[in-house]
Design a protein that fits this description.
The chain is of the alpha+beta class. About 20% of the residues lie in helices and about 35% in strands. The mean pLDDT is about 95. It binds 2'-deoxycytidine-5'-triphosphate (DCP).
């Protein structure tokens, strides 16, 4: 049996806005927006992997909270999960991405409607909209 690798992505909400990052590769998804993250290394916890990925990709230090309910099978051996995260230090900048932006609920709905979200990440839209409506 092949071990299942996990890709962890960060759902960062602050001031009723969600942080999205624009992919620069591969060509199929370049220009589309995603929750930033990446593959956990073998033996690395999801939380540590997310902290490392967001440090590398955005230059921020985060604390990691609860997972979103939906997970997405990217391939038979690769599953995508999202963890809520809170920025403790730093301002997100696009190190590996084309751009980063904060979107409100309407902007998230619009990006979703126009097909500008990375396909796998669309599974999280309802939960993200619920988070954006809180407080
Ligand atoms: N992915 C996704 N949605 C996200 C984050 C990632 O669908 N919010 C997918 C895209 C890739 C896989 O997960 O198929 C791995 O993502 P990355 O390429 O961003 O991760 P790594 O940089 O860790 O992988 P690699 O080193 O293989 O490039």
């Amino acid at each position: 049996m092949t071990a299942r690798r996990v890709v962890v992505a960060g759902a960062i909400v602050a001031d009723r806005r969600l942080l999205l990052a624009q992919r620069s590769y591969p060509p199929e998804v370049a220009g589309m927006w995603e929750l930033p993250g990446g593959k956990a290394e073998p033996g690395e916890s999801r939380e540590s992997a997310l902290r490392r990925e967001l440090r590398e990709e955005l230059g921020v230090e985060v604390t990691v909270g609860a997972a979103l309910k939906e997970s997405v099978a990217l391939r038979h051996d690769l599953v995508l999960v999202a963890l809520r995260a809170h920025i403790e230090d730093g301002t997100p900048r696009a190190v590996e991405h084309r751009a980063v932006r904060w979107v409100d609920a309407d902007e998230l709905r619009r990006l979703h409607a126009e097909g500008s979200l990375v396909p796998a990440d669309t599974a999280w839209v309802p939960e993200l909209l619920a988070d954006l409506a809180k407080r």
